[in-house]
Amino acid sequence: MKNNAVKYTVNLSFEEIKLPPFEEILVLGKHSPHGKQGISRSFDLLIPNGFEIIDTDHDNVDCVFVNKRILTKMPKEKILKILMSNVFPYVSEKEIIKVDFKVKISYNIVEED
Q1: For residues 47-54, average pLDDT
Q2: DSSP class of residue 90?
Q3: Which pTM was predicted?
Q4: Quick check: 48 and 14 in contact, CB under 8 A?
Q5: Does residue 43 sit within a domain?
Q6: Which domain of life does the UniProt lineage start with (predicted)?
Q7: 67: how many CB neighbours lie within 10 A of its CB?
Q8: Of 50, 93, 96, 100, which one is least surrounded by beta carbons within 10 A?
Q9: Is residue 10 part of a domain?
Q10: Cα-Cα-Cα-Cα dihedral of 83, 89, 90, 94, to 10°?
Q11: How far apart are CA 64 and CA 75, in angstroms?
Q12: Cis ω on the peptide bond leading into residue 75 (within 30° of 0)?
């Protein structure tokens, strides 16, 4: 007679998370289940005064939460223009999209006599 013992196989992995679970930009769809006010209050508890809310007039996007560190490097109008052309077309009205937005600043200085 064969023994029908139960055998388990478990694949396990884990990693550290940071709160909030994004660092740079969050794009909020117009009909996201989490509204602008709710997310804003959550951020105020986690990282007080860490993000600026930028409202949009896009069909599917209500607003964008931008880390204030980025705003010290680049004007919000330029950030919004980049997002409008490269991210907003792919956002549905019920989504919340995390955007990794790394800014690198470089200068090319040519000196003349």
Answers
A1: 91
A2: G
A3: 0.77
A4: no
A5: yes
A6: Bacteria
A7: 18
A8: 100
A9: no
A10: 90
A11: 14
A12: no
Phi, psi of 96 (to 5 degrees): -120, 120
**Residues sharing a CB contact under 8 Å with residue 59, sequence separation 6 or more, in sequence order:** 30, 93
Domains contained in the chain, number: 1
Residue 26 CA to residue 65 CA, distance in Å, equals 5
Tokens at 74, concatenated: 């680049």
Tokens found for residue 33:
């289940």
Q: What is the b/e burial string over 71-83, where b = at least 16 CB atoms within 10 angstroms of the residue's CB?
A: eeeeeeeebbeeb
Q: List the structure tokens of 16.
A: 């550290």
Q: What range does the domain containing 45 cover?
A: 27-99
> CA quadruple 23, 28, 32, 34: dihedral positive or negative?
positive
Residue 33 within a domain? yes
